[in-house]
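[agent] plan:
  1. take the single chain provided in the ticket
  2. run structure prediction with default settings
  3. attach structure tokens to the ticket
  4. add a short note for the reviewer (M.T.)
[agent] executing step 1
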Amino acid sequence: MPNLYSDAEEAPWDLLAKHLAGEASASEQQELHAWVTASPARLPLLMEATRAWERGGHMPDEFTEADVETAWQQFRVNTNLAPAPATPGGRVVSMWPAVQPLLRVAAALLLLLGVWSVWRLVGRQPETITIAAGAQRRQVALPDGSQVWVNRHSTLRYNSDFNKTARVVQLQGEAFFEVKKDHGRTFTVLANDTRTRVLGTSFNVRAYLAEDSVEVAVVTGRVAFSPVQHLTATPDSVLLRPGRRGVIRRAAPVVAVQKPIVDPNFRAWQRDELVFDNQSMTQVVQTLSRYYNTSITLAHPDLSRCRFTGTFVRTDLAQMLRVVSLSANLSVSRKADGYILNGPGCP
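[agent] step 2 finished; step 3 output follows
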């Protein structure tokens, strides 16, 4: 079991204070991001500090430059980072040049001192609960009453105190969420350096490590979708409504892009139903390949002009291919890694 105290002991508290105060440079933001993402156990500490700052981390008017040094030295001693250095005359040694008062950083340091004290009392991090779907999808009920369908070869993780502190889950792969509204408390999904935040809604998240993007598609309600390299809400986030999807690609610039949902079968894995409405054969084979996790290709590009309409519920791949090939005047052949459709095709 990960030790919560150990992660707090090693936290870069000075960088976190600068981040909360809005004084961190781009390189410092990147350094803090690397520390947070290196271990799932560190995320709750970041979230607790951020929530505390949002509740009360404002710069009091009475702060002076001396308070900056006093706050920092007190914080270093209380967190056992180092003894408070002093000059022979008993004056504390300045951490930053005197020409930089950094009053907001002082406020952040004093606030983090309180967060640190709470974490020292906690002692150990709650147990991590892991829901791993193998060859079959899994449906689970979270402690808050939310329902989650976890796709094949996907993993969902959350802390055992999920419904007592924050509603946060981590996803690798794909899952469909029906989130129960809970007195305005945010529900957060973290997946491949992206963050999805909702109150009560239903949506699909696709975040496979082998793919170059993360996609969120909304069915009901509203969803805030953003990259997390900046750790807090940024202009890079988008607000998604029903019928819209957000896409964040790993390649720079890492920003959320909003698009309409064009694939009617994005929930096929969860509903066990495939629906085709006058779709091109290219779209059909792409959907079948994704749904059955098997390579299905057309022998030549001209076959894409064929179109197909049909609905299938819990249909095996062999039967599906027989129906599709017959309607499009095609034949089906096995190949080493899947299937290929060939033949004269549509007139």
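[agent] step 4 note for reviewer: The longest helix spans residues 103-122.
[agent] ticket updated
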